[in-house]
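idk why but the lab printer keeps eating my pages so im just putting this in chat instead. protein + magnesium ion:
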Amino acid sequence: MIQTEGLTKKFGSLTAVDNLNIHVEKGEIYGFLGPNGAGKTTTIMMLLGMERPTAGKIKLFGKDLAENYFEIKRRIGVLSEFQFLYEDMTAKEYLGFFADFYEVENPDRKIDEVLSRVDLLDRKNELLGGYSKGMKQKLGMARVLLHDPDLLILDEPQSSLDPYGIREVRDIIMEENQKGKTLFISSHILSEIERTCHRVGIISNGKLLAEDDLTHLKHQVANEMEISVEIEGYTEAIASSLEELDFVKSVVYEDSRLTVKTTMDDDYRAQISRVISSHGGVVLSMVAKEISLEEAFVIITEQNLSLLTKEGQAS
Amino acid sequence: MSKMQYRANAINVIARRDIKSTVNGLGIYVVASLAFLVSMLFVRSNLKGVTENGLMVMVNPLNFPFFIAVTIGATYLALTSTMSVSRERDQGTLEVLFYGPIDSVAYVLAKFFEQLVTFLGLVIVYMIVFFIISKLTNFGMDGSFLAMACLSVLLAASIVAFGLLLSTLCRSARTSVILLLVLLVLFLAADIVSGILNSMSAKDMSVTLVYVRVAVDMLNRGLQWISPFGYLNRGIAAISLGSANLILSSIGASLLYTIVLLALAMRFLDRRGVRK
Ligand SMILES: Nc1ncnc2c1ncn2[C@@H]1O[C@H](COP(=O)(O)OP(=O)(O)O)[C@@H](O)[C@H]1O
Ligand SMILES: [Mg+2]
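predcted complex ->
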């Protein structure tokens, strides 16, 4: 759906985007993560042909943007990081204008539909100058949905929203994906990315450090798995037997909970359970605690840890 | 759909929106009324001439007042064109348009047609008003009045193209307007100074002043091909000489000028980008 090859953008001596190879598959929700100033917006602008790349190639829908400019633009919906609206228009007029621009059929019905999806239907006759920041962002989302695009590019879509708005936009993201739409979302609200995205690309200082599905990414970053066991009939023998196993890194017993840290290479829960039983202990519950995306993100970006192979492909 | 159909739609939608906001705004009415009042001063002085002397010396007494009215209108368009692209870029709304199916060609043409249609509306209103005045005052109107109206549309086209070019060059609406004013003052100053110097006889001039006169004259001649008003002057001269050849070539020159400037504006927009 989106494919870049060696995509690079320099602003004078600053390399904002550095030899970027990203791959977004049709029908997936792709999270594009990176700290402020990492180059996310610059990348998006190059995808849309609005910043000229210093080097590199881009394919959208498998095609060159320059050769199929209008067709491709018609199939994309873009929500920018900041909302720039015609403040002297009402929501209805604003969306009406864009409905004409994208030649939407049944514009009035469609406008009401998208406004109700972002919960702004009752404000449709108000001037946009009086809209709050969050409302403007939601109206931007409504504009994105208006022409039913196949690819949605959302730059920080939830940055100004309250918890209700965040949920509305999350629901929209999921619904659009259910309809088979592809979503490319840049964000640093990692909990949201974790909830919605199938795959993520992590960019820092213009360089792509990782591109992977969430589970695989976390496994690569974490070097240990923490398993928390609720236990009855604990004895010292249980701890010492566990410690003897070569995949166990540490064992701590506290408040009738046993915390076992193991290596990441496999799921060792069954073996742990067997050891505990063999010493007369009873396992009441056992949870493997994964590291969060946020933790993985911090590890990758702070250590500038590249999880890509030489060709820039996800390993 | 073809590229041209996509562009036609974008031009249509954007120009319509902008015309609507012009019609709903105040500026155009203020300028139209002001221009009308100024032109009426000239009509009145012509009328006074008739009543005092009992005879009409001018052949087409309404042509000049009409010309004044539309020129003021066109100058206002120079201002709004000059602000249009830079302001929309400054506000960030230009960026949002370019997420969608539009390119610099369609955008510049949309702005061009928007201004031109506004001007046509203005010219039609003035023509109706002047027709009524002609009936009331018995001042005659003939073919040269229509030629004047056509000329004014050509003038407006080149002025708008000129304004749009400045607009695509500048970062903010303010800089582009300042640039416009500076250029207009330069055009005017070169014209006036070379006029004064040319009216002086070479005998009374020092050698340096003669060189200055030649230099200013050359500069002025050059500027007359850059300034949209230069094309207007040549058009008026052609009409008053009544030479069909000169009229045709001055029409051709204005059209070419307009096309070249629009093409440059499109290129500048591409290079300068649409982002804030
Ligand atoms: N037009 C520009 N001129 C100069 N530097 C820019 C421009 N746009 C972005 N940058 C720089 O490029 C880097 C990446 O910016 P950006 O893509 O906006 O980051 P992000 O969206 O990830 O926060 C930043 O250091 C920013 O200052
Ligand atoms: Mg950004």
